[in-house]
Amino acid sequence: MRDFRQRLRTPIAGLAVATACLLTASCSGGAGSGPANPGAQGGGTSAPATPAPQIKISPAEGASKVRPEKSVVVTATNGELEEVTVEAGGKPLKGEFDAARTKWVSKGPLKPSATYTVSVKAGGGGGPATASSTFTTLKPAQELRIADITPNLKGETVGVGMPIMVRFSRPVGDKEAVEQALKVTAEKPVAGAWRWIDDSLAIYRTAKYWPAHQKVRFAAYLEGVRAGKDVYGVRNYATTMKIGAAWVSSVNTRSHTMIVRKDGKIVQRMAISAGKATTREYTTTNGVHLTMERGNPVTMISPGKKKGDPGYYKEIVNHAVRISNSGEYVHSAPWSVGSQGRANVSHGCVNARPDQARWFYENFHRGDVVKIAGTNRALEWNNGWGYWQMPYKQWKKGSALAG
Questions:
Q1: Is 349 one of the annotated active-site residues of the chain?
Q2: Domains, the chain, ranges and CATH?
Q3: Structural contact between residues 383 and 326, judged by C-beta atoms closer than 8 angstroms
């Protein structure tokens, strides 16, 4: 009987120890207790690893003949873009990130006939990632350039009426795209607009005269701009012009006077003789003229006539300043001094005393204003630089961006 009781105690004691071990295990795993990853003990499920950022670049690696108007687009999934560099020939291409920095898009056109390199860095929970790519843009079948910009003389000072005239190397098909690439900035801004005179010539004119004494910068960001079918701009242009004092001359053909003002103050009074008006061609034109060029001397020949014809003339004149394309100048006329201030006897020009004509010649700038009143012949808006003859409201309708 004693032996039976002793054998029974042994398993009961073992059961108590096992129960205690079970209770101890069930209380583990609280804050700060046990390993951070339950799977490390071999009995739990492993947490999935955070994926590295995935970077995508368009155009794709090795792409060729990429159209310059195409954008470069870089995206990142599972992370954020930290740095995007796109360049050709050491010149970086500008671009913008979206708010989440998961997308970058280039701004402006690409340079034609160029090789671009793209370098990207991205970061995220799965660690940093990098990517790179290269692609080339197409060579245009036809290139668009600027053949001439007026004014373009280095260091030239121009008048307050001066337009900006841009002549292109070939006809422009997509005028809207090209005009958007033309930028005019001034130290003293004033409203202005472009007008297309023909497919190759665009002219910028302000609504009012330029404010005097300032610099105006013109830039044409044509590189990569699609100007028509298979036609692309291949380079950018920029020039700066200096607007001088406000020189405004007022001519009255009835009182035979010319009054010159500089910044609003009278600096010269001149007795003049205008066109005798026996024919339309001998009638001085009314309206706002701009001084265009000068010569000393200038040979003037009667338009449409040859030697021996009635009314034919050939005169050599000094200190001549052109104000239209129909042959009108302000110039010296010693032969008509007796009529200056009294009568109109010229073939349409504004004749002045030699010393005063020389003074005007020496003080003029291209784009100075000469306003003429008193005749019945209006200056045509496209006669020389008669652009101020067209109301600004009508002028800006000639813009490709109008409306």
A1: yes
A2: 54-136 (2.60.40.3780), 142-244 (2.60.40.3710), 247-385 (2.40.440.10)
A3: yes
Report yes or no on whether pTM surpasses 0.85: no
Beta pairing partners, 215: 242
The span from the CA of 213 to the CA of 211, in Å, is 7
21 is catalytic: no
Name the catalytic one among 256, 289, 347, 349: 349
> Each residue of 295-318: pLDDT tens digit?
999 999 888 788 888 878 889 999
Place of tokens 């310059």: 68
Q: DSSP assignment of 274-297, as one string?
A: -B--SSSTTSPPBEEEE--EEESS
| pLDDT given for residue 44 in this prediction | 53
Residues whose CB is less than 8 angstroms from the CB of residue 95 and which lie 6 or more positions away in sequence, other chains included: 72, 84, 86, 104, 105, 106, 107
Residue of 256, 331, 347, 365 marked active site = 331
Q: Report the DSSP beta bridge partners of residue 239.
A: 218
CB 146 within 8 A of CB 225: no
Q: Dihedral (C-alpha) 391, 393, 397, 399: value to the nearest 10 degrees?
A: 90
Contact 203, 194 (CB under 8 A): yes
Q: How far is CA 228 from CA 10, 144, 198, 274, 337, in A?
A: 102, 9, 15, 48, 57
